[in-house]
Structures are given as C-alpha cells and as structure tokens.
C-alpha cells in the first residue's frame, strides 16, 4: 500500500514538536531549580547574618544587665537581696516570654520557596492554556 503524500513529513514534524516540547520542559525545570538554589543560598546567608547579630547583641546585653545589677546591689548594699531577687524574677519572666514567642514563631509556616512555588504555578497554568489551545 502506498503511503499518502506528506505522511513522513507529518511524523517528522510531530517528532520535532515533541522534541521541542521536551527541551522546553527541561529548560523550565532547570531554570526553576536554579531559582530554588539561589533562594536557598540567599536564605542561608540571611539566617547566618541574623544569628551572628543576635548572638552578639544578646551577649552584650546580658553582660550589661549583669553589670548594672551588680552596680545597683553595690549602691544599695542593705537591699542587695531584694535587688538581686527582683532582677532574677525579671530575668525568668523575660525568658518565659521569649520561650512563648519562640513557640509561636516556630508554629508559623515558612516563607521559603514561595517564589519558586508561584513560578511553578505560573508555568503549569501556561502549559494548561497551551494544551487547551492545541486540543
């Protein structure tokens, strides 16, 4: 049986279209993966920076508060037990407050990968629209 004219060209065109679609999908995946890696690196540097500043500030604040309490205890020597007791209560209260804040913040969802996920959603919507046009 003879093949209709253009049958081979039609298959070649279909194969080329499939190859182009696959290449496009791979390129999109590669771009999204690169975006994800970039976001991870930026988040890592941001967290390291925040931690270093927070640790330095906490250390300096702690030393300053302890020295201030000792200065108060020396200035009011007769009431030193009351000053040290009130200071201890304030420290414990502050620690409990910070523990509560830590629990609340750790329960919140992370914003990490939000950009990557939104870009993937846009890609999927675009692919659905293109598939709808071809059908």
Explained architecture:
This protein is mainly α and 135 residues long. Helix content is 87%, strand content 0%. The chain has three helices and no strands. Helix 1 (7-75) runs antiparallel to helix 2 and helix 1 (7-75) runs antiparallel to helix 3.
Top keywords for this entry?
single chain, 135 residues, mainly alpha, 87% helix, rod-shaped
Strand and helix layout:
Layout: H1 7-75, H2 80-107, H3 114-134
The arrangement of helices and strands along the chain is HHH
Continuous helix count: 3
Helical content, roughly? over 70%
When the domains are counted, the total is 1
Span from first to last CA? 30 Å
Strand tally: 0
Radius of gyration: 32 Å
**Biggest β-sheet description:** none
Query: What amount of the residues lies in strands?
Result: under 5%
Whole-number mean pLDDT: 83
Overall shape: rod-shaped
Secondary structure class reads mainly alpha
- The poorly predicted ranges are none
Question: What's a concise summary of this model?
Answer:
With 135 residues, the chain is mainly α.
């Amino acid at each position: 049986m003879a093949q209709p004219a253009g049958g081979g060209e039609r298959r070649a065109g279909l194969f080329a279209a499939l190859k182009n679609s696959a290449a496009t999908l791979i390129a999109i995946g590669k771009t999204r993966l690169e975006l994800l890696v970039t976001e991870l690196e930026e988040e890592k540097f941001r967290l390291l920076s925040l931690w270093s500043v927070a640790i330095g500030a906490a250390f300096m604040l702690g030393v300053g508060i302890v020295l201030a309490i000792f200065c108060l205890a020396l200035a009011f020597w007769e009431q030193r037990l009351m000053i040290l007791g009130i200071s201890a209560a304030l420290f414990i209260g502050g620690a409990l407050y910070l523990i509560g804040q830590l629990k609340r913040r750790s329960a919140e969802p992370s914003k990490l990968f939000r950009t990557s996920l939104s870009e993937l959603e846009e890609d999927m919507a675009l692919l659905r629209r293109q598939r709808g046009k071809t059908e």
